User: Fold this.
Amino acid sequence: MTFLTKDPISVGALLAEVAAPHCGGTCVFLGTVRDAPQDGGVTGIEYTAYEAMAVAEFDRLLAEARRRWPEARLAIRHRLGLVPTEEASIAIAAAAPHRAAAFEACRYVIEEVKKRLPIWKKELRADGTALWVDPEGRPAVVGPEGTP
Amino acid sequence: MATGTVQVRFFARYAELAGCETTSLSVPVPATVADVVRRVREAIPGAVALPERPLAAVNMRHVKLDSPVGDGDEVAFLPPVAGG
Assistant:
């Protein structure tokens, strides 16, 4: 499966990958780039990854999800490069015989992605500046002195 | 004590701070990830700005700082991840 893409994500393609006669419930999660007017406006986010490790980590977490929900069918795309506001940076589709497993598997995958995938984002602000942001969208702080 | 060579990789903001994305370093082995962090901070001027306890991966798996590192291993330093 191709997990990483520089192109806009096709939800239709993901749905086609998970569709199966035994599945009666499909859950789709989309993470989209949001504006932040209080921070001067965000026009997009530039995503970068440790690509080889990201692919390996996607493989590992999908294998874990399949052990927990053996009948679920899962598909993921994460976009890299510049993603404009309102477009999806990540899409997850989870199909299962019944809705409970579809919701649970989809939720599991996005939460694990947030914890583990070696992917970083740089916010592009409306004033032309760009800055690395941490998982909560705050400016990244590094260094022993705590200097940004 | 034997010496090993590790391939060090920096990503995102850490690559900007270190001024490079990858470098080779010799370290006395057996070593831990924490030993490699210390060597990196000594050997690369910009790397002093890296945290003393960064998130790290050895051969593309998340590891703790006391994990072993051997000759030929790849050690990656990862800023707080922000995927999704």
Observations:
- The longest strand of chain B covers residues 2-10.
- The two ends of chain B are 44 Å apart (CA to CA).
- Chain B touches chain A at residues 9, 11-14, 17, 49-52, 57, 60-62, 76, 78-84 (CB under 8 Å).
- Chain B has a mean pLDDT of 96.
